[in-house]
Amino acid sequence: MPPIADLSREIASGLRPVCGVDEVGRGPFAGPLVAGAVVLTPGFAMVGIADSKAITRLARERLAAALHADPGATIGIGRVEAAELDRIGLTAANDLAMARAIDALPVRPALALIDGRRVPKGLPVPAEAIVKGDATSLSIAAASIVAKVARDRIMADLAKQHPGYGWESNAGYGTAAHREALKTLGVTPHHRRSFKPIAEILLEEQ
Question: How does pLDDT run across 127-141, given as a tens digit for each residue?
Fold first, then answer.
């Protein structure tokens, strides 16, 4: 059986408050990179919280709404826009989005638990990286959900400004429909120009 996310890592740290942090949007051709930071009170319980990639879109939206409404959950969202990502690079953008998410929390965590193998640079608090943390840490799993839902909504809004790319369904990822739209509609200000497929289109246009 896969591990069940709980607050054991948060409690074992002996520190309070502890936030979980996760990001979404490293791979898309367009849109911001978004990170979530979530502090859950000891004893917090909500059925269904898991890695955002392992649950349906409807379940993510329901859980994100419940997390935002629950007094036992404190949430911060950080984002790095495509142009800034192009300027500083993907890894630095990942780190910056996480730092901004932590800074957006109304409370200052004593520790941040990060999903992944490395502790990002420039975080405002001490941090620990947990491999597959979104599957074992409840606060990281919650952060993955709120970040994913926040980014999907951003992309749906951008889809209204730039119709034809399918961002309301592909969230900016390089699907066949998105690639085809790039050929006919061109590159928008929200595309990541440092990504090879976008850079190649821009080079052809010169």
Answer: 999 999 999 999 999
How many other C-beta atoms are found inside a 10 Å radius of the C-beta of residue 46? 14
Residues 83-93: tens digit of each pLDDT: 999 999 999 99
pLDDT at 3: 65
CB neighbour class for 168 (10 Å; exposed up to 12, middle 13-18, buried from 19): middle
Average pLDDT over residues 40-62: 92
Sign of the dihedral through C-alpha 192, 197, 203, 206: negative
The verdict on residue 95 lying in a domain is yes
Q: What are phi and psi of 143, to 5 degrees?
A: -65, -40
Q: Which domain holds residue 159?
A: 8-205
Q: Binning pLDDT at 50, 70 and 90, where does residue 2 land?
A: low
Examine residue 1 and state whether it is found in any structural domain, yes or no: no
Measured distance between the N- and C-terminal CA atoms of the chain, rounded to whole angstroms: 54
In terms of pTM, does the model score above 0.70?
A: yes
What is d(CA 48, CA 22) in angstroms, rounded to the nearest whole number?
17
CATH number at residue 18: 3.30.420.10
Residue in 174, 178, 125 with CA at minimum distance from that of residue 25: 174
CA-angle at 23, arms to 157 and 37, nearest 5°: 95
Residue 100: in which H helix or E strand, if any? helix 90-104
Total domain count, the chain = 1
